[in-house]
């Protein structure tokens, strides 16, 4: 499936400014190729406002990018909803779309394959991840939890 492109692809919703510490950031983007970059930008902006450690910002940005890219490539969605939720020592990164979700753990990509490692990266960077079907039966949410606690040397 080819992801649609648009030179004027704009998010459907955009908050005026980052949320307060300890909060929730949720935004909806059109299902176009530029949405992964926009989701990464907003993730870094919010985590910077929350004073998250640099490694968490890097990991969350990568996880968000992989989840959005998977939603764009593997579902027939018109939109994706992205969410960052900070609770105590855990950051949840979630992406919802209108299509069916993965049915299990990611299969390993072959040595010669150029793609297929996105969920493996999500698994490696997170302390937990999963898929939740929409209550309406149309769509799903893929989420990953990241540890916000500083690493102990």
TrEMBL record:
Ranges of residues in domain Histidine kinase/HSP90-like ATPase: 33-143
Q: Where is this region: Disordered?
A: 1-20
Among SUPFAM superfamilies, the record links this protein to: ATPase domain of HSP90 chaperone/DNA topoisomerase II/histidine kinase
What are the record keywords, sorted? Kinase, Serine/threonine-protein kinase, Transferase
Per the UniProt record, one Pfam family is HATPase_c_2
Task: Give the molecular function GO annotations.
Answer: protein serine/threonine kinase activity
Q: What is this protein called?
A: Histidine kinase-like ATPase domain-containing protein
